[in-house]
Specification:
356 residues; alpha/beta; Aspartate Aminotransferase, domain 2; Aspartate Aminotransferase, domain 1; seven-stranded mixed sheet; three-stranded antiparallel sheet; 12 helices; 14 strands; globular
């Protein structure tokens, strides 16, 4: 058996007729930039998440940039986040000239340890970016309370968690700003790059909309230094189709996750949240050996993430060293992700479980 880690083609075939028609409709109108599907998708994302505003953009990375630009993050500012995430989380902080300040993770959730955030706050701190890793939201009540105490803003990096819930509230609507990614392999993915920014703040929403079109407030009138951060209409059309089926896809992912968890006897998630299951990750002591054996059986695996950000070459200037974040370093040496997608069939799932 040769198993597909993400099964993007199988998912496309499930919705082929709807997706093909939606894409062809865009081609027929030739409205490729900021076409009707973009605004329609934003309305549907607002309804889905409960956020007052959803502003689509060109990628999850650009969503983070737009969020921090809207908050006027400047050189010399500090932004607190986790070193156990994809580089975009911290890269965007550094790109704006601010300083990423890392906090170790909770060994149970792999998300930022809320109990260690307060000690990292200084007079230069501007915002906190918790990451809803692998699809599971962070301890947002505690993080929001700390932010309120110190007059900071919270940007939820929900690149992996669109559709997940925390205490009955949807991810992307858990802080001052939420950012998500529609990269093809994400739980809700388009056919290229795409992302969205969410907020309930009227002023921030207006500014983010302007920033994504070069700071423009009306044609050729520019209030801000912005960026070309629009979502293509074709990507919006694809996402509108997939969003209609998304709750069913989440149930399929959850079914796969439960089968894995029951077979391997892994503990349940915290009871106050529901994961989007972007990944199903477990820790093993002999990772290289297990990955090689599974690969030989046609079972792909991945490591999210093998090198913590504080030890990456590009962040050497921050002065971190091995041992600074012991839980992150321990987890990154043991973490391994199994195939996770809504189109794993029963035979494939049983085959994976047998060899695991």
């Amino acid at each position: 058996m040769n198993i597909d880690f993400a099964n993007l083609n199988r998912q496309y075939l499930r919705y082929k007729d709807e997706i093909d028609k939606a894409m062809q409709d865009v081609i027929n109108t030739s409205s490729f930039i900021m076409g009707d599907d973009v605004k329609a998708l934003e309305d549907e994302l607002q309804d889905y998440t409960g956020a007052k505003y959803a502003i689509t953009c060109s990628s999850g990375t650009d969503a983070l940039l737009l969020a921090m630009m809207a908050l006027d993050v400047q050189p010399g500012d500090e932004v607190i986040t986790t070193p156990f995430t994809f580089i975009a989380t911290a890269e965007t902080i550094a790109f704006l000239g601010a300083t990423p300040v890392f906090v170790d993770i909770d060994e149970e959730t792999y998300n930022i340890d809320a109990t260690k955030i307060e000690e990292k706050i200084t007079a230069k701190t501007k915002a906190i970016i918790p990451v809803s890793l692998y699809g599971q939201p962070s301890d947002m009540d505690e993080i929001n309370a700390i932010a309120k105490k110190y007059n900071l803003k919270v940007i939820e990096d929900a690149a992996q968690s669109f559709g997940s819930e925390y205490k009955g509230k949807k991810s992307c609507n858990l802080g001052d700003i939420g950012c998500t990614s529609f990269f093809p392999a994400k739980p809700l993915g388009c056919f290229g790059d795409g992302g969205a920014v969410f907020t309930n703040d009227d002023t921030l929403a207006e500014k983010i909309r302007s920033l994504r079109i070069h700071g423009q407030t009306s044609r050729y009138h520019h209030k801000y230094i912005g960026m070309g951060g629009r979502m293509d209409t074709i990507q919006a059309a694809v996402l509108r189709v997939k969003l209609r089926h998304y709750d069913d896809d989440l149930k399929r992912r959850e079914k796969v996750a439960k089968a894995y968890a029951q077979s391997i006897a892994i503990a349940d998630l915290k009871s106050d949240r529901r994961s989007a299951w972007a990944q199903f990750s477990l820790r093993v002591k002999n990772r290289d050996e297990i990955q090689a054996q599974l690969k030989a059986k046609g079972i792909p695996t991945a490591v999210h993430y093998p090198n913590p950000l504080h030890l990456q070459e590009c962040f050497e200037y921050l002065g971190y060293k091995p041992g600074d974040f012991p839980i992150v370093e321990k987890v990154s040496g043991e973490i391994m992700s199994l195939p996770m997608n809504p189109d794993l069939n029963q035979d494939e799932l049983m085959y994976i479980l047998e060899h695991i």
